[in-house]
Predict the 3D structure of the following.
Amino acid sequence: MEYIINNYVSFNSSDGTLFCQDDSIDMITLNRVSNELLLLFIQNVGVPISRDKLLNELWEKKGLSASNNNLNNYVSMLRKALAQCGCPGVISTIPKHGFLFEADIIYITPSVTSPDVTEYNQSPSPPVGHKGKWMGSGFFLSKKIKITTFFLVLLTAAATAYIHENLRLNSVRSEIFRYQQCRFYLIDDMTRRLDRGRVINRINAIIKDEKINCAIKTNVYFSVDKKKNTLDNYVFLELLGYCTYKSKAPCENYIYSRGEGVYENKN
Amino acid sequence: MKIKTKLVVFFLVLTACVIYWINFHNDKGFNCWARLHTQGNVGNCNGKSVYDIFLSMHSGGEGYILVSGEWSCKNSSPKSVDGIMNFSYIKNGDYYSIHMKERNPQLEAIFRVLTYRDIKLKVTAINSSDFILTLPNETLMLCTED
């Protein structure tokens, strides 16, 4: 059986271990009596328990002799253990009567035997007067898992989309240089194979001729197609596209036809 | 319901949403426009032209190209030209197969690609609103989505 005390400390009654949810300290292992004592407190959360009842449950029923001093020692040890885990003051002493355990308790049933809330609701209800929250199978953990999974999926989807888009864009366009606010890209492999220096010179010449404005953020795309004309000469068809960044203005396309000497030496 | 089942359901719903989103965007059609400045062989002479192209592809496999602008030969006054050419299209792989429904010699004179009855056109996004339009053998132009 596992319990969450004050949404912070996890208590496993089958092996008597206490875990802090934030892992600030190592696991604390309770001895047999402290373990049974905490379990009794949890089962009677919010209800005063008399010393006689505790002595009876912890020692006399097992045929052992008990004393109030013994009980005080174990309560003290349990208080220290809970305080170490960040739950101080959950056990109060009621003078001349016994003790009162006050905390929010979430009961976690093993998920194999009780897979959902409905099934759990058929189990015995907590004693009258319980203040703790009794919830269904793995509620606390599954909620954390759900939220974490949701954000992980969102993050993964966003990262995948971002990486995919960047890879796709890099395969479509490759930046060749920047001038003021303009970024210049080559958009086909034919152009990428040309002499880089000549391509940059040619782009600069077009910028000058067409008085292209690089004072605003703009992407400029350049492409060259090599064609053979009817006179058996090669002609370079140039396309320079000027697309203002994040603007609905149409891309301005400047198309030129040039002779062989522009990008290659005549043989 | 076990957490594994819940996760499977969640991923299925997510996948369905993504597929729906992709289909929604594919179905809404594509409109883009561009301005072309050419120098060299314009019509039957050596000159210049400036014209706007508006390409509209509806979701039903129909579309049109609107061309308007002017051109001039060297040492002659500019001539205006405008018109619409309707077409039908289907998508084959990465390319749209466009079939021109009519001819318009005036527009063909300034926008050479319109001389072909059938065109294979590829539309590639280069950022959120700009696209490259390419034929299998050349880059046609860059346009901005409307």
About this structure: The longest helix of chain B spans residues 3-27. Chain B touches chain A at residues 1-3, 6-7, 10-11, 14, 33-41, 52, 124, 126-130, 132, 134, 137-139, 141-144, 146 (CB under 8 Å). Residues 34 and 143 of chain B are 5 Å apart (CA to CA). Strands of chain B lie at 30-42, 45-57, 62-73, 79-92, 95-100, 118-125, 130-135, 138-145.
